[in-house]
């Protein structure tokens, strides 16, 4: 009787291990393909955007966009390491560099969210107050604010990575694996994660609703020649930024509210949801007008 029970338990364990291994392979394949797409399309998007912005005026909004481009650029530098890891399923670099690459996706997401909020608030303020309150906020102030923000990020983030990120929980973490830091989410950090996720969901939803209302007002006001209105075009691009937050960030943070209570079981699924947030690197494509698209396709045809 005991032999039968032992065999049954062993069989269950083997099946569970086999299923876990199969899911791990599926997650790795999905993540490798996702990050490869993000790297290629994100690089093209940034290249096109830099070509457009180099001849544009340095408004407060464009300064925020430059910051957004810089955040994308820094993140894309770390993507090849993720692709290589998910292709080989073997981390051969240091554990410290693993933490840097792992944390960069979160930094990118939160920095992107911050700049989205700034861009949307600027556009909303210019619409509701006709730019009166923005007049006192000069471009030099925006540049200085950006400089201070990046200094704070570049100083504080390494400290957080070294002293906090990946600490606690499972002390038997394999040096051959990476991006599996769910075990380090303790109670205090868990509360902070809940707060951040709820904040992002609420802010993204509210800003999207406000931006939609702006377009509704403009449409009613300039119903006939709405497409020729410059303000409408600018606000439409802002709506695209808001929708990017909704599509890329809200699903992940809604899932994260559940993941925080099941970190070990949902580690792989969490990585997939997290990877989907990186498609916001394509946000620069919202600035491409028909003329730019035509020039791009013409250049591709001439090259071919």
Characterization of the model:
This protein is an all-alpha fold and 304 residues long. The chain has one domain: Up-down Bundle (Rhopdopsin 7-helix transmembrane proteins), CATH 1.20.1070.10. It is built from eight helices and no strands. It has helices at 2-53, 60-88, 95-128, 139-163, 187-221, 230-259, 267-276, 290-303. The longest helix is centred in the first third of the chain and has 52 residues, at 2-53. It is globular. The N and C termini lie far apart (73 Å). Mean pLDDT is 78; it is low at 5-20.
From the structure above, extract its key features.
304 residues, mainly alpha, Rhopdopsin 7-helix transmembrane proteins, 8 helices, transmembrane, transducer
Q: Can you identify the CATH class?
A: Mainly Alpha
Query: What structural class do helix, strand and pairing data support?
Result: mainly alpha
Query: How many angstroms separate the termini?
Result: 73 Å
Topology-level CATH name: Rhopdopsin 7-helix transmembrane proteins
Average pLDDT score: 78
Spans where pLDDT lies below 50 across 5 or more residues? 5-20
Reported CATH architecture: Up-down Bundle
Total number of distinct structural domains:
1
**Helical stretch tally:** 8
Say how many strands there are.
Answer: 0
Write the layout of secondary structure elements.
Elements: H1 2-53, H2 60-88, H3 95-128, H4 139-163, H5 187-221, H6 230-259, H7 267-276, H8 290-303
Brief digest:
With 304 residues, the protein is mostly helical. The chain has 8 helices and no strands.
